[in-house]
Amino acid sequence: MKTYIAVDLNKCTGCRACVMACSFHFSKNFSPKNSAIRVLRDNKNGEISVTISSICDSCENEKGRFCQMFCEPGAIKILKSDE
To answer: In the CATH scheme, what architecture does the domain 2-81 have?
Structure first.
């Protein structure tokens, strides 16, 4: 069973906590350049976009997915598929 990360842009505030959590998973430090997640927020119009790169390993060897655990507004969900 495959899992996918889905982001509800109606709930996302653009806080980037997921970015920091992801970077900690990969490098044990807080650096956006080490994250599989990118969050862009246009402060002029409030639009938010989120991309998840192919390096995402769904927090392999962790007790949960860091991006989801630290997403305060609950914008990140994990979806499962039988594909």
So the answer is: 2-Layer Sandwich (3.30)
